[in-house]
């Protein structure tokens, strides 16, 4: 589901990021003080993440969202559609009675590497998809979002709820890829367009100075998803692992790309 290879508390209110858009605080854990049902909390997470994806392309033109800057990248429009295809194909079609597919041709256009749903458009040619337009893809998203809202009123089973949560995490993953790829696209433009108007925070312009080292003991470290693993025919999306690491220390110096990386190396951190 990853073409290449946000934790903590429940979503309650959106956060404003540096570009003036809203972001999702978290889509994983649950606040034990929340009196809403599990389905209500899941619905809030789902709608918040779906909304955030559209906010990420708010300032992009149709051309910005269509061009593919290299074979290993994908257009923003494709990410918008692919994450929607996931919910339509894997969740709505098999689970919402009477659901009407938005456009059957999208099944192959916006599939990535899933075998069972059918054929797939060549990854390196995703930038050739001038149609559907960005506006049409957004209509597609709204069609699916409306159906997802209807599905959530049916009190989905724990298994289906887990699949929906996986779809949420899948979309968040593609949000990161969308941003990475649009920045690469803009970097290839001699006009040097900015993704959004943003002033550098004050902390970015201050040269830091080391105040010491943070020491970490070695040992076994568990990481990854700790809940019930959903096993699909494609592959396991949620896995946990254990990593054995040696003791280490890191210098307590904020590092910026254009400022003091060499200074950090000179004082011996990390080691």
Distance between the termini: 35 Å
What is the residue-averaged pLDDT?
79
Question: How many DSSP helices?
Answer: 7
What does the radius of gyration come to? 21 Å
Q: What is the helix fraction of residues, given as a range? A: 25-40%
Going across the biggest sheet, name each strand in turn: 1-2
Which range does the strand content fall in?
5-15%
Low-confidence stretches: 1-18, 20-32, 231-238
Pairing-aware structural class of the strands and helices?
mainly alpha
Oligomeric state of this protein: single chain
Spatial shape: globular
The total tally of domains equals 2
Question: Architecture of the largest domain, CATH level 2?
Answer: Up-down Bundle
Largest sheet: 2 strands, antiparallel
The beta-strand count equals: 6
Give me the strand/helix succession.
Answer: EEHHHHHHEEEEH
Features:
271 residues, mainly alpha, Four Helix Bundle (Hemerythrin (Met), subunit A)
Reconstruct the topology from this structure.
Blueprint: E1 15-16, E2 22-23, H1 38-56, H2 62-66, H3 76-95, H4 106-109, H5 134-152, H6 158-187, E3 213-216, E4 219-224, E5 240-245, E6 248-251, H7 261-266
Antiparallel strand pairs: 1-2, 3-6, 4-5
Helix pairs in contact: 1-5, 1-6, 3-5, 3-6
